[in-house]
Specification:
Layout: E1 5-9, E2 12-16, H1 32-68, H2 70-99, H3 106-130, H4 137-148, H5 151-156
Antiparallel strand pairs: 1-2
Helix pairs in contact: 1-2, 1-4, 2-3, 2-4
Pfam family, one: ATP-synt_I
Keywords: Cell membrane, Membrane, Transmembrane, Transmembrane helix
Protein name: ATP synthase subunit I
């Protein structure tokens, strides 16, 4: 049954038979002003996310210190730093790319995310292998979780980019 179907592109609707190939859409061309505005908004979003993650990390450290003392605060610091440090480095690289006018490709995102994951796993493995005796694992995981969920703060205040 070759029933025609309707495809809406932009403001025009076209009718195609079921076996026809759809037309290739034209690429979107941005003006330099639009490109600059998008880069500025992306940079603001990156900075907002880093600030929210830093705030959540500091909150986790303060709560851990208040509830369980200095060892828990140090453990929460290790957990927060396990994700915040590589994320801040990756964000810095993205910001420098935005300021330089370059485009970030999928491969640079892949390697950035792989770096963040590898650094976090390496930090947690080093904390486990150090076996210091003072490491408070719930506080470490609390610090890590707070930084990982820093964007929830942006959701709460409706400041997501």
């Amino acid at each position: 049954m070759n029933q025609p179907f309707y495809q809406q592109t932009g403001t025009t609707a076209t009718v195609q038979a079921a076996g026809d190939t759809p037309p290739i859409p034209e690429p979107v061309v941005l003006t330099p002003e639009q490109r600059s505005r998008m880069a500025r908004r992306a940079g603001q979003g990156i900075v907002r996310t880093l600030v929210a993650q830093a705030f959540m990390g500091l909150l986790a450290i303060a709560l851990s210190a208040w509830i369980s003392g200095a060892y828990a605060a140090a453990s929460a610091l290790i957990g927060a730093a396990a994700y915040f440090v590589p994320n801040a480095l990756f964000a810095l690289r993205l910001l420098l790319g935005l300021m330089g006018g370059g485009n970030a490709g999928a491969l640079s995102f892949f390697w950035g995310e792989a770096f963040k994951l590898g650094f976090a796993v390496l930090t947690l493995a080093m904390a486990a292998m150090a076996n210091t005796g003072w490491l408070v694992w719930p506080a470490l995981l609390f610090g890590l979780l707070c930084v990982l969920k820093g964007y929830v703060l942006l959701l709460f205040f409706r400041k997501l980019p």
